[in-house]
Design brief:
This protein is of the alpha+beta class. Helix content is 51%, strand content 8%. A four-stranded mixed beta sheet has the order 2-1-3-4, covered by helices on one side. It is globular and about 55 Å long. It starts with 8 loop residues before the first helix and ends in a 6-residue tail after the last helix. Bound molecules: glutathione. The site of glutathione (GSH) has 12 residues, from helix 5.
Length: 231
């Protein structure tokens, strides 16, 4: 029997089955990357609902697993060398799960680095820029008179979308085969609807991204994982 009581997070979010991967998340674009990957990989897991409130993400128990107070985070009871491992940062978790299973990273070493390249593009570009745009467009827009932050992030989000749109020309998935890069990207593309930002970033002019997102969410694992853990 694996023992996870050494992870203080389990005091606030008790573990029912310590033999399976523990996911601590909320169904945001970053959170559902991991639930969708787990569904795609068919790995058994237990999902714990960690809201974005300070009471959850800034609790000492959560900070013990992710000192950066953000979902998602995981504990894999059966990590490298059979030892439990805790991980945060969704990109690192995706790479970890793909390498653990030998899936979702293409067929060759070159494919693998192409996939990781697009994961990094999402982690360093799409996620932070779309997130900031969402803040200025949807949440804080009316309270901030200076138009420059809003314009800056809309311009950058539009630029990133067009990079992706060009790269998807003639491709079903961004790195050839379906990989963790698609799992990293599609939830963020889908968030543009929630932000009400599609008209601002020229969504209607994109040739490939809209059908790419539809194709992604047609997958049973994406449909299942996008609601885990429930709100
Ligand atoms: N780079 C991080 C970003 C994670 C992130 O921004 N999580 C948000 C929800 S999508 C969060 O937990 N926010 C709570 C907070 O900042 O207090 C990752 O990809 O894991």
């Amino acid at each position: 029997m694996v023992e996870l009581s050494g992870f203080p997070i389990t005091r606030k979010w008790p573990v029912a089955n310590p033999e399976v991967i523990q996911l601590f998340a909320y169904p945001t674009p970053n959170g559902i990357k991991v639930s969708i990957a787990l569904e795609e990989l068919g790995l058994p897991y237990e999902a714990h609902r960690v809201t974005l409130s300070d009471a959850d993400v800034k609790s000492p128990e959560f900070l013990s697993l992710n000192p950066n107070n953000k979902i998602p985070a995981i504990i894999d009871p059966n990590g490298p060398d059979g030892q439990p491992i805790g991980l945060f940062e969704s990109g690192a978790i995706l790479i970890y799960l793909a390498e653990k299973t030998g899936k979702l990273l293409g067929r060759s070493t070159a494919d693998k680095y192409k996939a990781i390249q697009w994961v990094m593009f999402q982690m360093g570009g799409v996620g932070p820029m779309f997130g900031q745009m969402g803040y200025f467009v949807k949440f804080a827009g009316a309270q901030i008179e200076d138009p420059r932050p809003r314009e800056r992030y809309i311009t950058e989000a539009t630029r990133l979308l067009n990079v992706l749109d060009c790269a998807l020309e003639g491709q079903k998935w961004i790195a050839g085969d379906y990989t963790i890069a698609d799992i990293a990207l599609a939830p963020w593309l889908d968030a543009l609807e929630f932000y009400g930002a599609k008209p601002l970033v020229g969504w209607a002019n994109l040739r490939n991204v809209p059908s790419y997102v539809e194709r992604f969410f047609d997958r049973p694992a994406a449909q299942q994982g996008r609601n885990i853990p429930p709100r």
